[in-house]
Amino acid sequence: MARFASGGIASAAATATLPAVTLAGAAAGGGRLRELGIFNTTPTAFYASLRLFSTAGTRGAAVNSICLSRIGATANCNVADANTSTAPTLVNGVIRLIDMPAQIGGGVIWTFGDTGFEISAATSSMLGILCPSGTGQVFTYYFEWDE
After folding, report:
1. What is the rounded distance in angstroms from the CA atom of residue 14 to the CA atom of residue 130?
2. What is the reported pTM?
3. Residue 98: is its pLDDT beyond 90?
4. pLDDT-derived band at 52, boundaries 50, 70, 90
């Protein structure tokens, strides 16, 4: 099993319907989310939630990933920057939620136990960061997952 990582600075703040960043499976294969970190880039507090989606909507630009355990391996799952015009379809329930502190660099690292959070082998299997209430802010992030 290979471990992959991807990260960056969200190009737009999340809203209640448009995620700032997403991690999705592919028809060729899924994976298991092991760790997700998000960190505030502003001195303004905001809410951030990790949610599951059943459709992709209009995803933003692809974000490069790198294999941490095997040189040259290519990921099936893929990360994309902010969703744009069409919102993905939310699945009921919040996976994780944080009230991000009003401090540049303040944030959270979420881990997903010894087996990880499964991302199915389907383009409709997608995780993303939303701002469920109030005004979202731009943040830095990283995902680590196994395939």
Report:
1. 5
2. 0.93
3. yes
4. very high
